[in-house]
Amino acid sequence: MRKITSFILRTIPRKYLQRISPVVMKILGFINKGNNVECTVCGSRYKKFLPYGRLVSRENALCPNCLSLERHRLMYLYLKEKTNFFTAPLRVLHIAPEHCFIKKFMAMQNLTYITADLESPLAMVKMDIHDILFEENYFDVVFCNHVMEHVQNDIKAMKEIYRVLKPGGWAIIQSPLLSAGNTFEDSSITDPKEREKIYGQDDHVRSYGKDYGQRLASAGFEVVEDDFVLTLPKDIITRYALPAEEIIYFCKKV
Fold first, then answer.
1. DSSP 41
2. Superfamily for 71-252?
3. Which one, of 195, 141, 148, 190, lies nearest residue 164 by Cα?
4. 50, 33 contact by CB (below 8 A)
5. Which of 27, 52, 152, 203 has the most Cβ atoms closer than 10 angstroms to its Cβ?
6. Could you read off the pLDDT of 200-226 as tens digits, one per residue?
């Protein structure tokens, strides 16, 4: 199962996966019903979550119902525990929206919720993150997860997010951190196989390291690198199948 999952993720384009995967997952979820793990986003319970991963498939990762992964379940819990996202009237921009969040956030009466992406069929607005199609100081909240490692000019994209946030607004901007040192990027690396070898995916253009928070701060943000998951009891981490060490990058426009 793990090898099949990795093969599918590496060979089928994301925009097609987003359309067909919900149907397939419903079937697998029915087979896997149980009460050992629970999704923070949709509340579904299973014997265990499904495996997921492009190069190395992780066990107990993907919720069959809403398609949340470990990082999504952590982010949802973080929003509930440490922000005003579920209570305040907020205008929200969600860049490259994750399937697990879209219906949930659209149904929330306190939000004006807008999704945007260059290619995704799930997004309301077609938009290049290097040139966000909204005026400055427009949004209270921006989500942009696992995007910066794909874009040609990440600092410009970060500055665009900063521009459209209101003063006092905040963003969560997550990316995989693969380097033990600082961020590595080399524009001369264009071969997909070489990119996969060096960056972890053939459509990545850099590998972020311990300086990721500094790069976000260079765009103007006040950045809190929140180790929220490390404060949680072990039984909560196990119950919700959360990532062991994921840092939440909470970026505020002051």
1. T
2. Vaccinia Virus protein VP39 (3.40.50.150)
3. 141
4. no
5. 52
6. 888 999 999 999 999 999 999 999 999
